[in-house]
Amino acid sequence: ENIFKNIRRQSGYNIFYNADMLKTVPPISINLTNVSIDAAVKKCLEGTNLDFKIVDKNVIISVKPTSEKSQSKDISISGKVTDDKSIALPGVSIRVKGTNFSSATDTSGHYRIKVPSENSVLIFSFLGFSTQERTVARSTVINISLQEQNQGLNEVVVVGYGELNKKDLTGSVASVSIKDLEKTPIARVDQMLQGRIAGVDLISTSGEPGAGTSVRIRGTRSINANNEPLYVVDGIIDAGDLSNINPSDIESLQVLKDASSTAIYGSRGANGVIIITTKKGAPGKDVFNYNAEVGVAYLPRFLDMMNATEYATMVNENTLLANPNAVNLPYPDAASLGEGTNWTKEVTRTAPYNNHSLSASGGNAGLRYYFSGNYVNQKGIIKASGFERYQTRLNLDKTFSQKLKAGLRLNYSATVTEMNKVDIGSHAGWWNSTLALPPVMGVHDGGDVEGGFEDWNPGWYSGGVINSPVALVEMMKHDSYRKNLWLNAFLEYEPIKNLKFKSAFSNTNYFRNDSRYDPGQLPRRAFLEAGGYAVKQAYTYEKLLSENTVTYAKSWTDKHRLNLLGGFTIQKTKAVNQWQRGQGYLVDATEDNNMQATGIESTTITSNLEETALVSVLGRINYDYKRKYYLTLT
After folding, report:
1. Is the pTM of this model over 0.85?
2. Higher pLDDT, 614 or 162
């Protein structure tokens, strides 16, 4: 392709080809001086299955017929490709579906291609136009008219406190195609953004099931402050944890990226805004949908680590390097140790994944409904880790008259997360990470599965007692329970044409309970005679939000269009956090459910209350002249 570009630049000839043709051509390097365009192209294609012809100032690359025998059986198809205004399209790619046969149109839009049979299907594709397929049948001349893609300019997108045609936007707003995601297994909403919108980066916070991601829209804005975007779900501002939403319930997802589009949300929209709208029922026949996703997750490969024999040999060699006269080597019979322990394999597994969604929708002209339920069970690749979610949603839309409408959005979810308890490999806690532990260390004392866990790490400086990854996986408890209830109700009134008043009220209730218990029988705690260690945290959060807006839309003389928005919002939040830690517990059976069973000197208790209030005034003017000149003031 680089050579073709140089030929085009030096000769002024246009070169038409299908990029798929070049995938089987090995890289080449040529140096030509004072040669004709014919000789230059012929030299480039020497030894390949490609041919060319020159028409006027155009070079058209095509695939050679495979053999004389196949050529005699092939059917020759010709024709012309134009746009919907009958203007010829040069460089249109034509290929035979399921084969390597391909060609391209010349400057007058004409083409010729060989097909193996009458059942062959021709695929016509060109940038900026909709792809078409045509079965050959008994035709030898096939003329095609390609339709120009409108790029979704008439698509209606949701912006802050309203909707606009995509072509009328002055700000940067991107949409995620929900249809493209229907066959993709997705458990969390933020996964819907992965690799689908330019300028939006997702960074995984951890590999745990159910773990969230850090979203960055057009990069990091601040060194110290929060860089997460503002989430708006069905009008609920700052919706928080997206793990409470079933991705199957989403109807549209828009990302507001620049200052023009996010200004309506003030400083809260400084990092971008993600607007999520959930599905609504449609009048007519009731529709029921059930979707099930079942799969597994596993490590596709393991790092190539030393086995026990290799590790012991290395330690012996290091000993001799330090003291060539050493007699007592750490591992006198290194060859007998074999593979030893692969700690990563000991704590990982093939993890099953289940996602079940059931929905019902329908209604009539007066009342529409959408109801859904969702269950997700995702086990972690690390043993004793996983994520489980129960979720249900109810959306109601009531039309009282042409002037008065109301709606209700209700979402409830409960999640249980079994946290990861081991370290695969990092600088912190390296002495008991699976990559740093020596393979000569066994899982159990003396290799007895019925015995206790091996706790002596010979690779930790001069050796020391640790909690092995297997001991942590099998003995430690670390869980997080979360419940979330969203309620949003709105009333919309249109007293006169084009003038609308809307009042919405939302309530968010969130509860999180985290518990952790390290039993006193964990090897290192038992060695130190420290007893059990427990942490318990309870966090509750409530938010009340009232939004009141008025909009007015007017157009006249088919040239001027004006859209006005004004309103105010009131928000109150209350957060209560209680945290307790204790150690020295003698009875492991009660875990973290008997926090008072230790002395006051071994217990730490903290609690805090935080209340906030926010009042906002907002306004926006959208004006356009002849749909060519646009003005947005916010």
Report:
1. no
2. 614
Sequence-distant (6+) residues with CB within 8 A of 142 are 77, 78, 79, 122, 134, 136
Of residues 594, 346, 318, 556, the one with CA closest to residue 449: 346
Nearest CA-CA partner of 370 in 413, 414, 415, 407 = 407
User: What is the rounded CA–CA span in Å between residue 486 and residue 502?
Assistant: 19
Q: In the prediction, which pLDDT does 257 show? A: 86
Phi, psi of 233 (to 5 degrees): -115, 115
Give CA–CA dist 540/225, Å, rounded: 23
Distance between CA atoms of residues 87 and 134, nearest Å: 20
Average pLDDT value for the chain: 86
Query: For 417-453, what is each residue's pLDDT tens digit?
Result: 999 888 776 655 666 788 888 999 999 887 666 668 8
User: Which residue shows structure tokens 């938010």?
Assistant: 543
Boundaries of every domain in the chain:
2-146, 156-278
Helix H or strand E encompassing 574: strand 560-585
Fold of 2-146: Immunoglobulin-like (2.60.40)
Amino acid letter, residue 514:
D
pLDDT in tens, 249-263: 998 888 888 888 888
Q: How many CB atoms lie within 10 A of CB 578?
A: 15
Q: Is 593 exposed, middle or buried (0-12, 13-18, 19+ CB in 10 A)?
A: exposed
Top CATH class, 156-278 = mainly beta
The two three-digit tokens of residue 116, written as one number: 């193996």
User: Which residue, among 6, 16, 97, 89, has the nearest Cα to 50 in the 3D structure?
Assistant: 16
- Residue 34, token pair as written in the block: 């004072």
Count of other CB atoms within 10 angstroms of residue 372: 21
Taking residues 10-17, what's their average pLDDT?
A: 79
How far is it, in rounded angstroms, from Cα 240 to Cα 252? 18
What integer pLDDT is reported at residue 9 of this predicted model?
80
Q: And the tokens for 503?
A: 């009042």
Of 485, 451, 454, 459, residue with least CA distance to 472: 454
